[in-house]
Amino acid sequence: MLRHRKPALNTHMSHNCNFILIRCMDWRLKEGDDVLDWVEKNFGKKYDDPTYAGGVKDLISPKNPAFTDHILESIRISYDLHGVRKAVLMNHTDCGAYGGKAAFESPEAEEDQLIDDLKASAGLIKNRWPDMEVTLVLSKVEGDRAIEHRIIE
């Protein structure tokens, strides 16, 4: 019988990558590969890419605390095994986990909430991994595709 042995912490694999991308699983972020092309152009092609309903939302306001633990465990694995020291956090407008754009009074209120959650998530990650560089990205979705991506300072 084969048994999986949990690797020791900080044991890097030979196949390291440049960053971890935490984003929503929404299919519109993959439509036409526009988003992934933009990510690779701006950050590189070697990255871990776990996806979650709502992206970083469950780091800040989870429906179940286990969701937060799951995302943090994905980051830990990427950090420990793949030597990742950069996280790219991506939220997008019209996200179903937030209730879609109809859940907000205005497009500005929606963007403000998404950006606030990105910043709070970055703080949580930096608190656990002080040497982790964190970049925040907001994607604007219209109809069936993401049409714009911007890095949040």
What topology emerges from the helices and strands here?
Layout: E1 19-24, H1 34-43, E2 47-48, E3 51-52, H2 57-60, H3 65-82, E4 86-92, H4 107-128, E5 133-142, E6 145-152
Parallel strand pairs: 1-2, 1-3, 1-4, 4-5
Antiparallel strand pairs: 5-6
Short précis:
The chain has 153 residues and is α/β, with parallel strands linked by helices.
Describe the structure.
- This protein is of the alpha/beta class and 153 residues long.
- The protein has a single domain, classed as Carbonic anhydrase (Beta-carbonic Anhydrase, Chain A, 3-Layer(aba) Sandwich), CATH 3.40.1050.10.
- It contains four helices and six strands.
- Assign an overall shape: globular
Strand elements, count: 6
Query: Approximately how much helix is present in the residues?
Result: 25-40%
* Overall mean pLDDT: 89
Q: How would you spell out the order of helices and strands?
A: EHEEHHEHEE
The CATH class is identified as Alpha Beta
**Which fold name corresponds to the CATH topology?**
Beta-carbonic Anhydrase, Chain A
Q: How many structural domains in the coordinates? A: 1
Which regions have little confidence, pLDDT < 50, spanning 5+ residues? 1-8
**How many individual helices?**
4
The CATH superfamily title:
Carbonic anhydrase
Indicate the proportion of strand residues: 15-25%
* N-end to C-end Cα span: 51 Å
The CATH architecture category equals 3-Layer(aba) Sandwich
Protein structure class: alpha/beta
Tell me the Rg in angstroms. 16 Å
**Largest β sheet strand count, sense and barrel closure:** 6 strands, mixed
Oligomer: single chain
